[in-house]
Amino acid sequence: MTKYTDHLGRPVVAVTGIGVVTSLGVGKQENWAALTSGRSGIHPITRFPVDLLNTRIAGTVDFLGSSNQGATALTYELAETAAAEAIGQSGLAGAFDGPLFLASPPVELSWHSRFAMYGQSDEQEGYARLLATASKQNGDVFDSVMFGAVADRLADRFGATGLPITLSTACASGATAIQLGVEAIRRGESDRALSIGADGSATAEALIRFSLLSALSTQNDVPEKASKPFSKDRDGFVLAEGSAALVLESLESALARGAKVLGVLAGCGERADDFHRTRSKPDGSPAIAAVRAALADSGLGEDRIDYINAHGTSTPENDKMEHMSLSTVFGERMRRLPISSNKSMIGHTLSAAGAIEAAFSLMTMLEGVIPPTINYDNPDPAIELDVVPNAKRQADVSAVLSNSFGFGGQNTCLVMAREPV
């Protein structure tokens, strides 16, 4: 007899559809083939001039039609493409008939568009035209800079119910969108939810801002080697774009309509870190608490986790903090527990990262293959981890922990299982 509720009496939340777009390609199969072969999607930036910039590489998605139409347009196309794949796999026809949760970057009018608008008339009229972007007097521009505009369009496109939710919790955003979908189903508000993380904001402004924070790698000469999580010579993350979508359903609803269950979202944990705007608390206590909260929520002990999909940004401080936090939770087992970072190949997709890594975590269980951490040629002796170096590994994985630790102290961890816990 199938058990439809978890250890706390809540509906078991199943995944019935997965969609992915990254710099490695469109669709989960193309991405998975590249990821497990250790191929990098990092390349020189061609979208805007980089001559005077310290960082000139990124994981931009340049092969979609909207790649040169601004962050809002690209974020929408990324989200729409991933969602269409996920819904198609789920077998749901017609209107989606469930809530939509979108992790999206804060949007703003690009400087190119601002200057173009300003230059269309004299100084006084140009200034007035810029002010009009904050009102409905200029409908197209207004829509392009409204934070909820992308989610509104997605809700109309797929027939989501209720008010679509747009959220931004920095690098944890994608995982937070999944958590909100899980909670909506657990509360009995809906039988299904569509959770999406999308980010097409690898703009010149974003590159400069992260550079000023000394957060980006400056190893431009061989772009595909720049992201090197847990290596001694890591020097920062690589800015990237992408999207992932999950169709979440109560297990009872999914089985009742004959859907194939791809995995289970067993646990979610989050904790805030109030230490610093960008740095993590030195003792790692918020990250430790987030991991433990996710495990407790799932009903699984530390010994049940077979693989960890790391946050693994390739920044000197984050990788050290993540190692310390996981070693505190898992103890000596952390020396032999496989952990790898997809960011070594796709870069840091910011608002989309948590969703993309959750999608890859589910595929790890489905395919029985752990993607590698590439560029691991100079191990950091202070970080003793089995990072699945440079080559994929066959493994029987029944439960995964996926970590997302964001700027601003927003930490979200997800536990996924192959079967209901």
What would your notes on this structure say?
With 421 residues, this protein is an alpha/beta fold. The chain has a single domain, classed as Thiolase/Chalcone synthase (Peroxisomal Thiolase, Chain A, domain 1), CATH 3.40.47. It contains 13 helices and 15 strands. It is globular. It starts with 12 loop residues before the first strand and ends with a strand.
Brief overview:
With 421 residues, the chain is α/β, with parallel strands linked by helices.
What is this structure's SSE topology?
Layout: E1 13-22, E2 25-26, H1 28-36, E3 43-44, E4 57-58, H2 71-90, E5 100-103, H3 111-118, H4 123-132, H5 139-145, H6 149-158, E6 165-167, H7 173-186, E7 192-199, H8 204-212, E8 242-250, H9 251-256, E9 263-272, H10 285-298, E10 307-309, H11 316-330, E11 339-340, H12 343-346, H13 353-367, E12 369-370, E13 393-394, E14 399-406, E15 410-417
Parallel strand pairs: 5-6, 5-7, 10-11, 10-14
Antiparallel strand pairs: 1-2, 1-8, 1-9, 3-4, 7-8, 9-15, 12-13, 14-15
